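Input record (one chain):
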Amino acid sequence: MSKFLIVVEETETGYSAYSPDLPGCVATGKTKPEVERMMSEAIEFHLEGLREDGAALPPAHSYSTYCEVPA
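The corresponding structure, as predicted from the sequence alone:
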């Protein structure tokens, strides 16, 4: 089992998500739970495609944090 960071952004019509560790792997959904589920499916599909192409699976290397600055 692998874990990949995903970034979820609110859009005018719902939510979109991407993984910085998997360029080109994106998903959309109307709700947060839906976009997370769709992104999980997109990651599985993306990794399956890499396996079929004989490419190495990328290691998860991104992380998230917050920076505090005066506003």
